[in-house]
Amino acid sequence: MKSGYVNNMMKISTKTVGVLVVLALLFTISYANAEEWPLKRRIDLSSGFGDYRGNRFHAGVDLRTGGKVGAPVFSPVNGYIWRVRMSYDGYGKGVYVKGYDGRIFVFGHLSALAGRIQREVREAQHDARRYYVDLSFPQNAIPVKAGEQIGLSGQTGSGAPHLHFEVRSADNKPLNPLANGFTLSDKVHPTFETLVLQLTDDHSLTDDGTRTVSLPAHKLKRPGQYTVDSVICMDSPFGILTHCFDQMKAGGMRQSIYRLTLSIDEKPYYESVFDRLDFSYGRSAQLEFDQVCAADGNKRVRRLYHRAGNAYPGSKALNDHDGLVGEDAYLKFGRHRGLIVAEDIYGNTSQLRFQFFWSPPGGAYVLDTLLPVQESSLAFDAFFRPAEGVETAGLDSVWVESYDGTEWIRGNVAHLEDGWLKVRREDSRSWRLVAAIDGVRVANGTWPSGELRKASSEVDFDISPGGVIVSTESPATFVSLLSETFGIETPIARAEVFDDRVHAFVAPSSGLTYISDGFLLAAVGYNKAESLVVDDRLTIRTGRAGFHEPRFISAEKVELPGRTNPMPISSVYRILPEAFVTRDNFEISLTLDSATEKAGLCWWDEKEKNWVWINQDSLDSYTARAESQGGGLFAAVVDDDRPRVSKLNIREGMTVTNLKPNVRFLLEDTLSGIADDQSIDVHINDIWLIPEWDFENHQCVARLYEPLEPGPCVLTVKVTDRAGNKTELERRFTVTGKRSKKSGGN
C-alpha cells in the first residue's frame, strides 16, 4: 500500500512538474519581455513614436509613471554609459546607454542618476562651474548590465512626471521601440474620426468657398470598420488627410498610427510608416501632419499626399503624382471608391471607406457660346455642351440656379439635340448651372452679376494653404482687384458667389503685393532676400531659404483687445496666418520711439492671455528684434520686474548641522524669463553651488560639491532675467559638524 501510494505520487508529481515547467517557461518569457523595458511595472504609454512635436517628430515613447517621481529606471541591455546631458529644458537629466550591439538607449527627464554616473556629472559640473554639461564617455568607462539601475524617473526638463525612452541605431537614428524588441499587449483597433479633402491646384474653391472639405467618419458594427456617408463632387486635383489615432488600451492615451495606406479604386496612392527617423528631417513633421489643425490643438491629422519640402522617407507616394487624386489620367467622370487602412505594430487594423464623384474641371457641361437676345439688352442665351462621359454617368436632372440676394432660386433649362443645353438669362443676377448625376450634385461654377449688392471697396482676405481666398461684395471691385493687383487677366472665370459675396482663390506668384490702409498682403519665398514693411515700424525679413514653397503672408497694425499686464510700449501688429509651415524662422524687427534696455519683442498667447518674450537680441538703435516660425499678435513690452526668489530654506542667523546643506528656494519670473544656468548664481562664502532649476514648478535646488568647513557662512543668491533685471539675496548662518537641541538640521 505504501509502495502504491508512492508510485501514484510519483506519477502525479511527474505530470505536475511538466505543467510547472511549461508555466515557468511562459512566465520567464513574459517576464523577460517585461524586463526589457526600463521600468519594472506595467508599461503604459502617454506618447508614441512619431507624434507631432511642432518642429520635430517625437523620437521615442513616453512611459507613464503614475504621475509620480522616483520610479527606478534600469538599463535594458549590457553596455556602458555613452553620454549624459544636463539642462533645464528638453530632456532635463538625460542618460544615454550604448549596448554592445551598437544600439543606443536614451532616458529623459530623470530626477536622479545612479551612483557613479551622478559622481562623474557632479565633478564635471563643478569643474565647468555649469549645471549644463554634455558629457561623452569611452567604452566601458562606466559599464552597465541589463537590469542594472541607472537612475530614477522624474520631470526634469519639460512635461509632467514620465520617462522618455528612445531606441536608436548605431548611427544615432531613432527607431520605433515597439518595432525593435519592446512589446506591449495591444488588441485595440486604430480609430478614424474625420476625412479631409484638400484642394491642391492654383485656382479652385469648394462649394462653400473654402479649400477643404471635412467629412465625419462613422464607426460600423464590425470592429475596425468605418465609412463616410457623404458623397461629394470634386472637379480639381486634391489631397487626402485623415484625423486618426491609435491606443494601446480602450480609453488609453492617443498616439500616432504606425502605418497608413491610401488607395483609390484599389490602386495604391500613398503610404506612411513611422518606423525610423532622422534628426535632420526636422520640420518635415509640419508636412506629415496638418499644421493648421495642430496649432488649434488637434495634432492627429495625418497627410496622405506629398508636399514640397517633406524629407521624411517613411512616407511616399505610390502613384506618379505625389499621391494626389485627380492628376491621374485613368480617373474617369463618375463615382470612385477610396480606402484608408490604419495598422498598428501588432497587426490591429481599421479601414475607412469613402466615395467621391469625379467631374472634369468645369463640371458636367461646358459653356460653349453666349448669344445676346435682340429684344433685350440684358438678355442672352448660354449654350452648353456635355462634358465627355456625361452620357454614361447616370444623369438624374439638370437645372439653373439664380441668386436673388438672399438665396439661390431654382429654374429650368432647355434640352437640345445631342445632349446640349440652353439657358436664357434676362437679368443681371448671378447664376450657375447644376446637375445631379447618380444622386450627386455637380455644379458648373458661378457667373457673377455686375452688381451683387452695392459697389464697395471692402475686400477680405483669408490666407489658406497654397494661396489666399479673396472676397468682396462687388464684382466690379473684384475684377479690378484681381486684374490690377494680382495681374490676373480673366479673374471672373475663377470667381464664385458664396453668402452674398464674390470669392476667388489666388495662388502666390512673384511680385504679388496688396497694400491698403496699413494692411499688407504679399507673396514671399521667391527671392533670396525679402523685406516687408508695415507702418514704417514693423519689418519682416525672410527669403527663399525660409520656405519650402512660395506662400502669402499678411501684416497690419491692429488694436489690442482689452488691457494687458504689462501694456506694450509700441503699437500691436498682427501677422497672418498664425500657423504655417516654414523651413527656417523669419526675422521680425520693431522700431521704437525710445530705446530701453529692458524692452523685448513679445508674442500674445491668446490661450493663456499673456505676453511671451521672444526677444533674442538687445535693443540696437531703438529696434527690438526676434525670430518667429509663425504669426499672431506682436508688440514691444518692457520687463521691469525683477526675478522673485521666495521660500529660501536658509534663514538669517540659523544654524545648520549638515556640512553639505542643499539650498532650496522658489524662483519665478513673469515675462522675459531665466535664460539658462548661467543666470542663476549661488555661493556659500566663495564656494559655487550647482544650481538645478525646474522652470515649470519653479523649484531650485543648489548643491555643494564638497563639504563646508564648520563656522560662520554667507549665502548669496543672484538671479538675472533676460531683460537684465537682477535679484540678490544674502543670508548669514552657521555650520556645525554636529546636531544640537538648539539647532535644526537642513
Q: What report would you give on this structure?
A:
The chain is globular. It is mainly beta. Strands 1, 2, 4, 5, 6, 8, 9, 11 and 12 form a 9-stranded antiparallel β-sheet that branches. Strands 15, 16, 17, 20, 21, 23, 24 and 25 form an 8-stranded mixed β-sheet that branches. The longest helix is centred in the N-terminal third of the chain and has 35 residues, at 2-36. It contains 5 helices and 57 strands.
Structure in a nutshell:
The chain is mainly β and 746 residues long.
Draw up the topology in text.
Elements: H1 2-36, E1 45-47, E2 61-64, E3 72-74, E4 79-86, E5 93-99, E6 104-110, E7 112-113, H2 115-128, E8 133-136, E9 143-144, E10 149-152, E11 162-168, E12 174-175, E13 191-199, E14 212-216, E15 218-219, E16 225-227, E17 232-234, E18 238-247, E19 254-255, E20 259-264, E21 267-273, H3 285-288, H4 291-295, E22 301-303, E23 315-317, E24 334-343, E25 349-358, E26 365-372, E27 380-386, E28 395-403, E29 408-411, E30 414-415, E31 421-425, E32 431-437, E33 440-447, E34 459-464, E35 467-472, H5 475-485, E36 496-498, E37 501-506, E38 513-516, E39 519-524, E40 530-534, E41 538-542, E42 551-558, E43 572-576, E44 586-591, E45 599-605, E46 610-613, E47 623-628, E48 632-638, E49 644-646, E50 655-656, E51 663-668, E52 680-684, E53 687-688, E54 690-693, E55 699-703, E56 711-720, E57 726-735
Parallel strand pairs: 16-25, 17-25, 50-57
Antiparallel strand pairs: 1-2, 2-11, 3-10, 4-5, 4-8, 4-9, 5-6, 6-11, 7-10, 11-12, 13-14, 13-18, 15-16, 18-19, 18-22, 20-21, 20-24, 21-23, 24-25, 26-27, 27-31, 28-29, 28-32, 30-31, 32-33, 34-35, 35-37, 36-37, 38-39, 39-42, 40-41, 41-44, 42-43, 43-48, 44-47, 45-46, 45-48, 49-51, 51-55, 52-53, ...
